[in-house]
Each structure stands twice: as C-alpha cells, then as structure tokens.
Amino acid sequence: MPAVDDARRLAEEILFPDADAIDAAASVPRRYLDALGEAGLYDLPGERLEAARVIEALGGASLVTAFVWIQHHSPVRAVAAAGGALAAEWLEPLRSGRRRAGIAYAALRRPGPPAAIAAPLSTADHPGSDHPGGGDTGGWMLSGHAPWVTGWGLVDVVMAGARCGDDMVWLLIDAIAGPGQQVTEVPLAALAASATVRLEWDRMEVGADRVVGVEPYGDWRRRDMAGRATNGYLAVGVADRCARLLDSGVLAAEVDEVRDGLDRCTAGDVAERRAAASLLAVRAASAVVAAGGGRSVEAGATAARLMREAMFLLVFGQSADIREKQLAGLGYPRPAEGGNGSGVPGAGQESEPAARSAATAS
User: Fold this and answer.
1) Largest CA-CA distance found in the chain, in angstroms, rounded
2) What is the pTM of this model?
3) Domain annotation covers residue 84
4) Phi, psi of 182 (to 5 degrees)
5) How many domains does one find in the chain?
6) Domain residues for 244?
7) What is the pLDDT of residues 60-119, one digit of tens each?
C-alpha cells in the first residue's frame, strides 16, 4: 500500500521528530502540511482500511497536524461527486494539496433548531438581475454559525453545511473574514495549533458557482453515521505511539486488538469500538506520563502532549452513544433517562469537535 508507506515514512522522518514543536506553535507550520501534499496524501485512498492505516500513522506522529489534514478530505470527495464546473476548477488543486479545505457543519448533527440555515437567492434579492424567468439564481444566502472550524489561516476554503427545510445545502466558501462572515478565535486546551475558530454568517451570499450540492438531510445523516469508525484510528495511532515509546508488548497487543475491532466493526458496535479506542489512548498516555516521572509535566514534554491529545480524542467525533460507552468504561453508571447524569453543563449534547473524515465525505 504505497500511501501507507508514504504516510509512515513522513510520520517517522518529519512529523514525530518535530511533533512537540508543532504542538507548541501558534498554528501548524505550513511546511508540514505542504509535506503531506508532496507525499500525495491529500488524495486519500478510497479503500477504507488503507485510509485507516494512513490516518493512524499521521495521528500517532503529530495529532494536531493530522487533525487539520483529516478535515480536508470530505470537501475533496464532495467536489468530485459534484462534477461540472466546480470540480473542473477545484478538484485537482484540492487533490494535490495546492489548495486546502476545512469543514463547517458539525453542529448540524445536534438536535433542535439548525445552527446554520440557507435560503435560495432569487432575482427578488437582486433587482438588477436578468436571470430568465425571475426565479432562483442558483445561489444561496447563508445565516447562522459554525462553532468549530479548524485550520483557519491554513485552509483556502471551507465546505459549509446548512439546512433548508428537510434538505442539506453544501457550499464552498472562502476562508477569509469579510462582509457576512465574522471570525472569532476558539482557544483550546489541547491541539491549540489547529487554529480553530467560530464562524458567524449574517445573510452571506454564496454564488451558484460555489454550490457543492443539495441533498435530503436524512441521506447525509445516514452516510455520516456509517463512517463513524474512522476517527477511532487517530486514537489507535496515539496509543500505538505510546506503546512504542514504552517498548511495551502488552500495550502493543491491546493496540492490535482495538485496531482489529475497528476494522471489523458494524453499525451495531461502532460506539463500543470507538469508546475502546479513545479510552485506550488515555490509558496509554497516562502510562507514558507515569513512566516519565516529573519530567512529564514540564512544558514541551512529549508525555504531556500525548496526554492532551488523548484527552482531546475523548471528545473528537463523540456522540451520545459513544459518550455513554466511555463513561461505562471509566466505571460510571449509565446516565439516568431524562438527564445526562454527569453534572457537566452541556454533556447531554453531541460534542462540537465532531468533524468527520475522508470515509464520510458529504
């Protein structure tokens, strides 16, 4: 699998040796993202397990780099599926990594009123238009917000999702602040170099040339749910890195077992498999911290970075059923019906950093 070999080489020769410095940077230095493009890794393999091994290798080398990178692939596949003029303009630059993309739609998985809505632009919105028939121009007006958008300043465009009734509208928007698009930094306790921001849209107009597609919301949710195993391989990568640092055959065997579980998981047990991966990463990182003693809590320590990464992976891509399995695995009872049972504000909602990866392109 050439892509896996390239990812592992890049991981060991470039990313992991610099991982602590990358994590401490204000944002992931562009040269590391460029190196992924030079290795051809912005066009992720279509075969699921091959893609999983690439994700694991990068996640175990520099999670913050992998976190920015992994969100590029949904826009790539969506643009490829859209075809036409949009693909003609954007597909090759995205696949090569000459242009990079992020995503802005995780909040639309939450119940309740949609975080972002889209309304079709018409000639009523543009009185001077000569659009034939005086109807829909093919463009959209975007309003609402996206609480977590990763890679700001590192990506060129963002694929935003918004609701229009029972439909999902997918739009490719420029990653710049401007009229109708306000940007606010989101400070993070882990993976701060991911350059994560909140976007707010106030009747921002998006032309027909940037419409990726429109589909029933239910169709997207079914496809989205079907790919939930993929994010678990980031946790496998972190746990595997810990096993290698500790030279622990016991921990390596656990990593193999969790990886195999993700490889074979079904819709019925994906939450359990995902929870097992994230909890193993936490245990493995804790072991690295303990083995390192007091040096582990020094600024810039690899052990401290791995511990923060493992913490982050508890909530990245987390959903209510995954959270329940995690709490059970940590020895907590199942939350009582009608409450989240945690005492943590907002713990009954799906987590914001729930960006899906290449296997769940929209």
Assistant:
1) 73
2) 0.89
3) no
4) -105, 140
5) 3
6) 225-360
7) 999 999 999 999 999 999 999 999 999 999 999 999 999 999 999 988 888 889 999 999
